Amino acid sequence: MIKFSIITITYNAEAVLERTLESVAAQTYPEIEHIIVDGASKDSTLTIAEEYRRQSDAAHNGHHVLIKSEPDKGIYDAMNKGIAMATGDVVGMLNSDDYFTSNDVIAKVVAKFQR
Question: Is 90 exceeded by the pLDDT of residue 78?
């Protein structure tokens, strides 16, 4: 089975992050590693991310959530941190104000890779 890593970069994203996280949690593909790299937000971004990780752990849906929060040198530095953490066969970025439009987006992407 192909493991899919999704990297989400955040900084003070409390107003938009929850929708992003919900769209990842709703994905039907079972082998997802979601890496959230936060640039030491000063709002409740990290609290939202930690709650998402707790819910994911409780759901036992095969999704694994990793969170790293520390100052960075900008978005590309944060992306590189996420890539360095990724263990998936396929790595994708999903920004903290973006979301998947359906629950089978990752499953469809993986199917393309398998063909």
Answer: yes
